[in-house]
Amino acid sequence: MAKTEIVKLDIDQTPLREIKKTTLGTGLLKGLQITMRHLLSRSVTVQYPDEKDVLPARSRGVIALKEENCTVCMLCAKECPDWCIYIDGHKEFRQPAQEGKRAKKYNVLDRFAIDYALCMYCGICVEVCPYDALFWTPEYEYAEHDITHLTHEMDRLSDWMYTVLPPDELDPAATGPEFKTLPQRTAPAVATPPASDGEQPTPAGEVAAPKTDQGEPTDPAAVPEQEAKVTEEAAEAIDTDVATGEAAPQEEAPQPKEEAPTPSEPQAEATAVSEEEAEEIGRKVYEEEIGKGSDPRVAEGRRKAAVLRARKGTRGPGG
After folding, report:
1. Closest CA to 312 of 95, 100, 97
2. What is the DSSP string of 15-44?
3. For tag attachment on the chain, is the N or C end more exposed, with fewer CB atoms within 10 Å?
4. Could you count the other beta carbons within 10 Å of the beta carbon of residue 112?
């Protein structure tokens, strides 16, 4: 095991003493020099509260609430690391526009408060809000003499919305997002049938000439003459039949097949009842469910369903 050697150095103290004597009072003079420089320069101090400096749009002063945008989703309160946001709400039913449809539930905001004695101004609640209900404002004059008064309620947070500054204008030289363009699809080439012996292949973009029964191509200019010849032969055959008194055989048109009648399904009789009878049916259903030992909420739901079915004249699942 190696031994550690301690080396002692002999330091002559004479040079240090001489340096101290020569630098005595130098630091004081340097400090006074800085003081005189600021004393003769122009003052930049803002005389608050008589004077207030203009803050930028992204200043984090206080958080404002836009009450009509809040849906009581509780996302800001869940993500807050200090748990300084308090939200209370309840559910209400919105009546349907058409009769027979189910009423929709929606959240109603009762309380929204922020305890600024705990808030550390991280801005997570502003970022995670999916409906833009929270905003940063440059307002910073909300000090209180009592720390318990730093919990500001919904009315105070809503008043700070009037101090929200508009965002900075976009840079006209900035480039927008780059979108990927899909390659254009070309139409697939149509394969031409192989030409037989003695035939020339048809160029692309041209239509092949029709052929006769013997497989020879027909001259396009001779097609009208052939059609006229066939018409004259048909007319001569009709004159011959009229002269001999024989009628030309006619082909019988195919008659449509008669489809077998399908047995008609029994239709449920739908007879609507009056309002009083519907309520009486609902009352009976409610009493039956209570007699079975069902939960009152379940019985009430089935009573409403029976009333709606009675009004429409439809039957229930068991009827």
Report:
1. 100
2. HHHHHHHHTTTHHHHHHHHHHHHHHHSPP-
3. N
4. 24
pLDDT at 224 over 60: no
57: Cβ–Cβ under 8 A, 6 or more apart, which residues?
A: 138, 165, 166, 167, 168
CA dist 287 and 310 (Å) reads: 17
Output the CA torsion sign for 92, 97, 103, 105.
negative
Q: What integer pLDDT is reported at residue 5 of this predicted model? A: 57
Tokens of 43: 């003052």
4-8, 72-76, 242-246, 280-284: which has the minimum mean pLDDT?
242-246
Q: What percent of the chain has pLDDT over 90?
A: 24
CATH number of the domain located at residue range(s) 62-163 in this protein: 3.30.70.3270
Beta strands at 151-152 and 104-115: parallel, antiparallel or unpaired: antiparallel
The residue written with tokens 């013997």 in the block is: 214
Q: What is the pLDDT of residue 60?
A: 85
Q: Is the distance from CB of 109 to CB of 133 less than 8 angstroms?
A: no
Per-domain boundaries in the chain? 62-163, 275-312
**Cα–Cα distance, 138 to 267 (Å, whole number):** 70
- Parallel, antiparallel or unpaired: strands 134-137 and 104-115: unpaired
Q: How far is CA 287 from the centre of its chain?
A: 46
Token match 């808030």: residue?
Answer: 119
Give yes or no for a contact between 70 and 107, defined as CB atoms under 8 angstroms apart.
no
Report which residue type is found at 157: L
Which amino acid belongs to residue 272?
A
pLDDT of residue 31: 85
Q: Provide the β-strand partners of residue 62.
A: 137
Q: How many CB atoms lie within 10 A of CB 28?
A: 9
Greater pLDDT, 202 or 108: 108
> What pLDDT is stored for residue 265 in this prediction?
44
